[in-house]
């Protein structure tokens, strides 16, 4: 498919010719004990029995007992035979950030991803709980280089994945494990999505924050910069992310949450960017048999847990109003808090306003439910922990919720 795609894509031809000019969800019991799922008029599923006997609400959608990786691989296999030139551009909000399109070649993953070591699988360069036996998150794709210069250094141009505006450039590699990196804001289906390009050797001269860029416009050159590891020449790559922004007030929150620690990147610290899986997005948007919607993709994330937050005016609500659900009770009585569904990486993908009469606890943050199968499949963010037979927000989970609601 990659060859067909390249023949359809004049830009890729130019890049390969070294002309680098700019071109403008069966039902799984929550906590292992729920027995009944009904849908209420608010769009949440109805109350069921929890292991603590509190009648906690069920997740937004029934859980499938299939691992995330298995679902992705089954989907990928089904899609191979459906790819064609027609219809490819109509539903693609994002393009690859380099000329490496081997993701669309059957069995091409080893040419697309940069695994962490020669004896590691290609999945170690993909998104998710793919490192340290599933206990460490990798929040992007490591896309392998195709070109090298005279000294064996990567020479691939790095391109904007979609139309957008540059919001941040870091050219002090010693200050980040990203090394030199660029962040671009995109508006897709009314949503702000932030792409990140890391380990760069150089940024295009003259590129600066506030500057608009077009999809496919060259913004940088691939490199090996990082303050956390030495990236070997043979696995040189661009680390690519697609993120939601958690909070405009990150810098102020960080001062209170991590006193004495440095924050050299303000709101563009990686902790303030929660990643979506770019691989899944690329595969789905290239499937001509099904119309792709990024909003639907986010809304259909698998729920790890649900929390109740006694806060009513935090930036995420304004940035992502399309993820806020309707609740007639709260519309009538007023809003006293939000019931929020988080995926395994902490992405808040559904927020239900709750009225005072619907909130029984006085706690500022309350864990309502946990999808145990999802926590087992994707534990690497360590957002929840089980103590004494009861699920609780772990330290990382509490930090995530505090930042969200700050």
The CATH fourth-level homologous superfamily of the largest domain? Glucose Permease (Domain IIA)
Q: How many domains, in number, for the residues? A: 2
Strand tally is 17
- The secondary-structure element order is HHHHEEEEEEEEEEHEHHEHHEEEHEEH
CATH level 1 name of the largest domain: Mainly Beta
CATH topology name of the largest domain, in short, is Glucose Permease (Domain IIA)
Please explain how this structure is put together.
The protein is an alpha+beta fold. It has two domains: 2-21 and 82-285, Glucose Permease (Domain IIA) (Distorted Sandwich), CATH 2.70.70; 30-62 and 301-405, no CATH class. 20% of the residues lie in helices and 23% in strands. It has eleven helices and 17 strands. It has helices at residues 2-8, 10-16, 68-80, 109-112, 250-257, 278-285, 294-299, 315-319, 328-333, 372-377, 395-405; strands spanning 128-131, 136-138, 141-144, 157-159, 164-170, 180-188, 191-203, 212-213, 218-222, 237-245, 273-276, 305-309, 337-342, 348-354, 365-370, 384-387, 390-393. The strands form four sheets. Strands 3, 4, 5, 6, 7, 8, 9, 10 and 11 form a nine-stranded antiparallel beta sheet that branches. A four-stranded antiparallel beta sheet has the order 14-13-12-15. The longest helix is centred in the N-terminal third of the chain and has 13 residues, at 68-80. The radius of gyration is 22 Å and the shape is globular. It starts with a helix and ends with a helix.
